[in-house]
Amino acid sequence: MSSTNEVITSGSYIKHHLQNLTYGQFPDGYWGFAHTSEQAKEMGFLAVHLDTLSISFVLGMLFLSFFYRIGKKMTYDTPSGAQNFIESVISYINENVRGSFNGQNPMVAPLALTTFIWIVLMNAMDLVPVDWLPYIAQKIGVWFGADLHHVFFKVVPTTDLNATLGMSIGIFILIIYYSIKEKGMGGFVAELTFHPFGKMMLPFNLFLEGVNLIAKPVSLALRLFGNMYAGEMIFILIALLPFWIQWSLSLPWAIFHILIVLLQAFIFMTLVIVYMDMAHQKEY
């Protein structure tokens, strides 16, 4: 991935693939791309991971445009294979929502569908050979005159903790919103202070329920990030092996990893449904 003749060690190769394409402001005020992990850290909180944003945005647009296009052409007489596929996915999501959500909220099923499909697509980027997209990104950068001779480009958005935390925080905001909307501010506060040990243990209840509330987005983010990060790391390690060994290991791992791709999206979606159900339950 380097345009120079430098020797790339195993350690630098792994580090290269685990670093995001970061754009931000350097300490001297100059805005540009980070060429080392140290430069990326110097950019601070306002640094932008362009690879995560671009890939997740493109995948989201592909998902929405595909479903919209098939939805506009739906027919009861001679449904296409794509229509049958979409209907089966929607039916599957609806069954999961009916089984785990007991409230009345027309937004929950679309939310579950969006999180499931979007995460599946982002996770599936892990099945693309690790060097392909970084190499393409480097060539595109050179074409546009960007100084990307040492390009960093993480192809799996869900291996970026910023992406998984961003999705989880969005879900957390919805949980708080619907908890207050369905239970009222008084009911929401009562749930945090009176449960599970009653009024006499109010400080202890508040501590336990506060930790439980904060743990929801944290667990959502870390579970998805950790599993996908580990899977990507194995693909990177396989890529370091001789070519004839790579294919003997990468294919079985890719087949097994398909299960991880789907399972992690399913777990995230299921927990979203369960958390939204808990937000609609009234105990006080």
Automatic annotation (TrEMBL):
Function statement: Key component of the proton channel; it plays a direct role in the translocation of protons across the membrane.
Family in the record: Belongs to the ATPase A chain family.
Membrane association type: Multi-pass membrane protein
Subcellular location: Cell inner membrane; Cell membrane; Membrane
Species name: Vesicomyosocius okutanii subsp. Calyptogena okutanii (strain HA)
The gene coding this protein: atpB
PROSITE patterns: ATPASE_A
Name of the protein in question: ATP synthase subunit a
NCBIfam families per record: ATP_synt_6_or_A, PRK05815.1-1
